[in-house]
Amino acid sequence: MAIISCPACNKPISDKAKSCSHCNYEFGDASAEDIQRKLSMQRYNKIQKLQNQSMIAILLFIVGCYFVFLGDFPNDEQGLMMYNGAVFVTTIGFIWYAINRVRITLTKRS
Ligand SMILES: [Zn+2]
């Protein structure tokens, strides 16, 4: 018998328990260990998905930066709009990446 944490309330319970003695969470036919394994799989998949999104965000940021600093925009209203668009893409990429970093950290911690 091992002590694991309840998938619902995170309090320590036996891995053979059919329900949590703290929050009365019912595990049904699956043992608490099975449920926890499933939850950690889901968490792993979620982190993978967030990491993929981070990659896209970094790509947006890099492409945006490239155009902001090296883009050869015409010196008129249209050029200004293109420049602002590049700044916008860079900002979105950076914010998106930051949000994903926070979400990955939170998911790993929970
Ligand atoms: Zn519980």
Note down, in words, how this protein is organized.
There is one protein chain. 65% of the residues lie in helices and 5% in strands. The protein is built from two helices and two strands; from the N terminus they run E-E-H-H. Strands 1-2 form a two-stranded antiparallel sheet. The chain has helices at residues 32-70, 77-109, and strands at residues 3-5, 12-14. The chain is mostly helical and 110 residues long. The radius of gyration is 23 Å and the shape is rod-shaped. Zinc ion binds at residues 6, 8-9, 11, 20, 22-23, 25.
Topology record:
Blueprint: E1 3-5, E2 12-14, H1 32-70, H2 77-109
The chain binds zinc ion.
Which features does this protein show?
single chain, 110 residues, mainly alpha, two-stranded antiparallel ribbon, 2 helices, 5% strand, binds zinc ion
Q: List the domain count as a whole number.
A: 1
Query: What's the arrangement of strands in the largest beta sheet?
Result: 1-2
CA-CA gap between termini = 24 Å
Q: What is the overall silhouette?
A: rod-shaped
Count of runs of 4 or more consecutive helical residues: 2
- How many β-strand runs? 2
Structural Rg: 23 Å
Look at the structure and give the mean pLDDT: 90
Bound chemical compounds: zinc ion
What fraction, in percent, of the residue positions are helical? Answer: 55-70%
**Classification by helices and strands:** mainly alpha
Describe the biggest sheet? 2 strands, antiparallel
Strand content: 5-15%
Q: Which ranges are low-confidence, i.e. pLDDT below 50, for 5 or more consecutive residues? A: none
Question: What is the ordering of alpha helices and beta strands?
Answer: EEHH
